[in-house]
Each structure stands twice: as C-alpha cells, then as structure tokens.
Amino acid sequence: MTQRHASATIIDVAREAGVSKSAAARVLARSGSASPQTKQKVLEAAERLGYRPNQLAKAMKSGLTHTLGVVLPDVANPFFSAVLRGFTDAARSAGFEVLVSNTDNDPEIESSSIELLAEKRVDGIAIAPVLQRDPQAIARIAAEGIPVVLLDRRLPTLAALPLVSADHADATAQAVRALIDNGHTRIALLTEATQSLDELRAIAEGPDDAYFALLRPSAQRVIGYLRALAAAEIPADEHLLLRSAYSVDDAQRAVEAFLDSGVTATALHSTDAALTSGAYRALTARDIAVPQDLAFIGFDDQDWTTLVRPAVSVIDQPRQRLGATAATTLIGAIRGHAPSAHDHLLNASLLMRDSVGSITQA
Asked: For the whole model, what pTM was predicted?
C-alpha cells in the first residue's frame, strides 16, 4: 500500500502514477493536454499521496495568491455578516478565497490585522475602516500597491481610495419623504451624528459634494433628512434632532428623554439598527401607540421588525449586494481593469409596513 506523504510533490505524484513530471504538472495545473487515462492515473495518485499544490510557489510564478482579505469592525453585526456573505460568494465565484479579520472597532487591532493580511500576500483587501483621524496602516498598504476598497464608510485621509457604500443620504431621505407624503411635518430624527444642525444644514445646502462624501454615514443620513425637509419647505428644528451613541440603551434613553421634553412630534425615524432597537424599546416602555401616537420608521430590516405589531417600516440596505460589489471592484483592481466609477453608491429600499399612519393637517 502506498504511503501518504505529508508534503508530496509533483515528482512524487508522477512517480506514483507512472507518468512524466510534465504530464503530471499539466494535469494538476489543469492546463495543456493529457489523455483521459493519464488524467485518471495522476488524480488518483495525487489523492493517495495527499498532494496539495504549493500555493507560495504558484504565487511566485503568477504574482497572485487568489486570496482576498476583508477587515470588518464587527462580524456579529447582522449588517456586516450579510456584507461578508455577499463578499465571499462573489469572491469564490471568481476563484478567490477570503481571509476575514474582526477589529472590534479597535484601531490597533485593525492595524495589526492589515499587516498580517499583507504578510499573507493577499491580492487585495476590502476594509470597513475604524473611524479615526490617521489610518496609517491602510494608507501604507495602499501606497505599497496593494489594491484596497473601502466598505460602507470613508475617512478624510483616504479620499483617493474607491468606496462601496449605500447611498446614506438618499436612504434617510426616502424615509422622510414617505412620512411627509403621509402628512407628517413634525418629524424627529434619532442619530449618532455629532455635528451641529447649523453645520449640517450648511453642508446640505452647499455645493461641496466632495466634502459631503467624507462625512460619516450617520452625518450623511442627517443630510438626507435636511434635504427632504427643505424640498417640502419644512423648516428644520434643532429640538427634533435626537442624539445618541451607537447603543441600544443610549438610544432608549434619548427617545425617553425626548418624550418627556414636551416637544411635539408626530413621527420618528431612527438611522441605524441599534438606534432602531433602542427607539422601539422606548416607545414600548412609555406605552406610545404606533402609529396612532407616533409614526415610526427604523433602519435595517432586522428580524424583530416583522414580529412586533404593528410591523415596523424600515430602510433596508442592500447588504449582500454591497459585499458582492466590493469583491468584484477589488478583483477588478487586482486584474488591472479600469474602474467604471471611483465610488459605488447603492440605493437602499423603503419597506413600508404598518408603523406609518396618515394624519390630517389642520
């Protein structure tokens, strides 16, 4: 019985199959011609010996390892897990495998992850970057010629890198327009954005799209809110802008404080998944009837939004398509294809359910 080798070579396979080294190499590389009998002998010999291709040698010859890196802040987050699924599906269909790193939104972990992926000779990296002022590791690998695609968010110092993202401003604008179409003019917005209303209004009204593109997704969504209000000639009110950290508990506290403030609103839109969960918890805790007392539109189509009554209307981001687009954009850059666009902004969808009610204007 033939012994199974821990590191069998093409020479071992050729000897086991009783064929020449060149014939074995053609069969194992799936290139060139070989008779059906030769193919069978070589493949059976490779199986018996446990032959595995020398990926490093192949990479040195072709310049590619056919592996991609993807660096995400939280793979347990339903948004990023769906993005990852779309990314890996598209990568594998193109002949690439994927190495994944989770940063926990820690810039040091992100930096070490990027360096490790570079050491592994991945052909390119897709990164949803930690929000920081000086992402040196990303800038360094891009400068070294490793193709990089940004996912979901951009940083000011990385303006030259391609981005794949949802159109965040349009996403929230869709929600606000739907509320306006149903008669609402006092629309509260729950957001992570930290900029003042005056600063955001200046950006919303200004022509500087380049500066707008560098805003965080949370701020871009507020811009969409302001633009939808302005298009309907509804003045923005600082008292209707609710601030929260990215936390279910903080969002609940922010909405409860708003409900206690006495400020009048007939509708509320929360601008991400965690804030949506916290906002709905606050409405439930305070016995707010949706949509009779307050119309509500959330963000991201979470499982629970269709289990509660009334079912919650949401903005649904094209999560898997974002991942797939990032993969194809990255692979195109690796193969030297000229990009069709520097940025790929994908449209979100408004899923209207039962949490938005029409009101009669006085």
From this structure: 0.80
In sequence order, the 6+-apart residues with CB closer than 8 A to the CB of 224 are 168, 169, 170, 171, 172, 173, 174, 176
CATH number of the domain that residue 134 is part of = 3.40.50.2300
Do 48 and 85 lie in a common domain? Answer: no
Residues 6+ apart with CB under 8 A from 218: 191, 192, 193, 271, 272
**Alpha-carbon span 243 to 253, nearest angstrom:** 10
Band (pLDDT 50/70/90 cuts) for residue 361 is very low
Shared domain for 176 and 143, answered yes or no, is no
Distances in whole angstroms, Cα of residue 87 to Cα of each of 32, 81, 155: 32, 10, 21
- Asked if 262 and 277 sit in the same domain, the reply is yes
Question: Side chain identity at 47, as an amino acid letter?
Answer: E
Residue 209 pLDDT exceeds 80: no
Query: What is the C-alpha to C-alpha distance for residues 206 and 226, in angstroms, rounded to an integer?
Result: 12
Residue 356 lies in a domain: no
Query: How far apart are the C-alpha atoms of 131 and 194, rounded to whole Å?
Result: 13
206 shares a domain with 313 = yes
Instruction: Note whether residue 312 is domain-resident.
Output: yes
Residue 308 three-state SS: coil
- The full DSSP string for 56-115 is HHHHHHHS---EEEEEES-TTSHHHHHHHHHHHHHHHHTT-EEEEEE-TT-HHHHHHHHH
Number of domains in the chain: 3
Asked whether 99 and 122 are in contact (CB, 8 A), the reply is yes
CATH of the domain at 38: 1.10.260.40
Q: Are residues 282 and 211 in the same domain?
A: yes
Tens digits of residue pLDDT in 107-150: 999 999 999 999 888 999 999 999 888 888 999 999 889 999 99
Q: What does the pLDDT look like over 238-260, one tens digit per residue?
A: 999 999 999 999 999 999 999 99
Q: Verify that 220 and 151 share a domain, yes or no.
A: no
Q: What are the DSSP calls for 221-258, one per residue?
A: HHHHHHHHHHHTT----GGGEEE--S-HHHHHHHHHHH
- Look up the domain containing 118 and give its range: 62-161
User: Region 82-89: what's the mean pLDDT?
Assistant: 97
